[in-house]
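Please decode residue identities from the backbone states below.
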């Protein structure tokens, strides 16, 4: 087989493997079960949650949570499964009550979320593979809760598996103010907030390899500022040698570094990209590496925020993740790392879109999986005039955000999708473009999708941005796939205001026009040459680059 055919085959295998992994994640998130959950209304006693698969030895810490709206005496009540039944003690309870055989083995978040914990002798041994939990009174069934294939340390609520210690934040909305809007690579991520910090700098990321940001953080630590860095412990493709070196430098310079993940991780990936520095914050679509925040490759969006509510919300999110059970010190994970060797991006690009300080009417911080999906679906589906979507990729047309955009189009809204044309994403994105355009033609919708033409202004599209009605801007780490919305830790902001809406709409429109002689359609010959060159360089420079770049960018 020739070298070019081999490369194509490897890329196709990567595409198929990634599609399968995302589909598997979506299937797992759906939580379909054969039996219905509770068969009573919420005004009667009902089952709220079950934890069948704790990580403790002997499954110590299994529990069932029931809700009793009124004061109820438990004489004659039982809790059981398909094999065993245990009588409940003769006590009076109300509100949410956790039943367990070993109260001392319960994770702390259980005690914080229920009104009472009740010890049950001979508590039924819950099957990890799935079964039905039954609550009865005097031999009559009151409620049931069925589950399948219990993940470790997660509780089943009847419609989804919730990881131990998962947060449940509401959207955080701040009032009028000013923000600094910018796009990359035209503007490298500004670091003046770090330089000016007196108290704390909290950096959250998926990956971290930037020498420039490392230097700024170390300088802050030397001034006595508390500096903390939190990144994912197992990004797709592995931790790079450059990231290991950067984290070692930070740790040696007095910066606290933790990695989020492990066997009992609350989320598939810690994919958020933001920073809090005293009373300012940065929210980004890009990773903390030269190709992203360094301005050496990617088209990305970013914003510098002020205001107590948005900054406070980011601070709360960071602290919740920093103190979670799945956050481990860097030195505890250091020896187990097998670094991947890849070279940093070093290209330079013209600065045609200048950063701008603009007013906003409000800023809303969204967090996944807590609240981002519902908020974004509502915003996009409710558009009145136009929706501009600039994304690295879109995972098919049946995902929630794409369906929201199509719903807006069916109500008369103009919708535009602009997706990456990078060699590792072109084929799949091309299929999505064709399908969206086919739907538009069949239904007579004002919808158009295309692949971006960088035209020398950037190397590849990595932004995760949306502009709704030229007034609401969404930017952050949320990818347009179900796994990102429901399984990852993600952070995004919604910026509302006419001027900020116009800024990012203009940036989108410039990318939409591209370098295509006016019509925005990619020139196949130039794209093919660029793809072959990029692929050849990737294979030469890094033996794992095919998997790392393609799958890593999907998560990036």
């Amino acid at each position: 087989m020739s070298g070019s055919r081999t490369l194509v085959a490897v890329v196709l295998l990567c595409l198929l493997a990634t599609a399968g992994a995302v589909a598997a994640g979506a299937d797992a998130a759906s939580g379909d079960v054969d039996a219905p959950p509770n068969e009573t209304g919420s005004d009667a006693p009902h089952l709220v949650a079950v934890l069948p698969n704790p990580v403790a030895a002997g499954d110590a810490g299994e529990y069932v949570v029931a809700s009793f709206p009124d004061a109820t005496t438990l004489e004659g009540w039982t809790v059981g499964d398909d094999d065993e039944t245990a009588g409940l003690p003769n006590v009076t309870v109300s509100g949410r009550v956790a039943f367990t055989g070993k109260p001392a083995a319960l994770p702390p978040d259980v005690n914080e979320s229920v009104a009472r914990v009740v010890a049950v002798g001979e508590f039924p041994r819950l099957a990890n593979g799935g079964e039905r939990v039954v609550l009865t009174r005097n031999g009559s069934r009151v409620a049931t809760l069925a589950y399948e294939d219990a993940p470790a340390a997660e509780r089943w609520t009847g419609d989804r598996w919730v990881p131990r210690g998962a947060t449940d934040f509401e959207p955080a909305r701040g009032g009028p103010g000013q923000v600094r809007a910018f796009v990359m690579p035209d503007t490298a991520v500004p670091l003046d907030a770090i330089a000016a910090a007196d108290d704390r700098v909290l950096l959250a990321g998926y990956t971290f390899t930037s020498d420039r940001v490392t230097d700024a953080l170390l300088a802050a630590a030397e001034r006595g500022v508390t500096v903390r860095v939190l990144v994912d412990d197992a990004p797709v493709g592995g931790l790079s040698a450059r990231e290991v070196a950067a984290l070692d430098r930070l740790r040696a310079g007095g910066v606290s570094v933790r990695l989020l993940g492990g066997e009992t991780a609350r989320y598939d990936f810690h994919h958020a990209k933001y920073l809090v520095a005293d009373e300012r914050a940065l929210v980004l679509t890009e990773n903390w590496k030269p190709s992203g925040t360094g301005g050496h490759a990617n088209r990305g969006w970013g914003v510098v925020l002020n205001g107590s509510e948005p900054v406070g919300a980011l601070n709360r999110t960071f602290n919740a993740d920093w103190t979670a059970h799945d956050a481990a010190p860097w030195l505890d994970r250091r020896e187990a790392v097998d670094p991947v060797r890849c070279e940093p991006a070093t290209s330079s690009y013209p600065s045609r879109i200048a950063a701008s300080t603009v007013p906003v009417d409000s800023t809303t911080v969204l967090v996944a999986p807590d609240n981002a999906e519902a908020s974004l679906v509502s915003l996009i589906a409710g558009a009145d005039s136009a929706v501009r979507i600039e994304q690295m990729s879109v995972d098919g047309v049946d995902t929630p955000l794409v369906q929201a955009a199509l719903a807006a189009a069916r109500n008369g809204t103009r919708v535009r999708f602009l997706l990456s044309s990078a060699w590792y994403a072109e084929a799949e994105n091309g299929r999505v473009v064709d399908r969206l355009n086919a739907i538009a033609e069949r239904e007579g919708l004002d919808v158009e999708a295309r692949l971006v033409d960088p035209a020398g202004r950037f190397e590849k599209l990595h932004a995760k941005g949306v502009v709704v009605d030229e007034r609401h801007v969404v930017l952050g780490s949320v990818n347009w796939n179900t796994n990102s919305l429901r399984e990852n830790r993600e952070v995004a902001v919604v910026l509302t205001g006419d001027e900020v809406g116009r800024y990012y709409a203009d940036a989108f429109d410039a990318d939409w026009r591209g370098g295509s002689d006016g019509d925005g359609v990619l020139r196949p010959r130039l794209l093919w040459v660029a793809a072959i060159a990029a692929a050849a360089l990737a294979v030469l420079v890094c033996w794992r680059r095919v998997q790392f770049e393609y799958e890593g960018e999907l998560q990036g």
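Observation: The first helix runs from residue 3 to 30.
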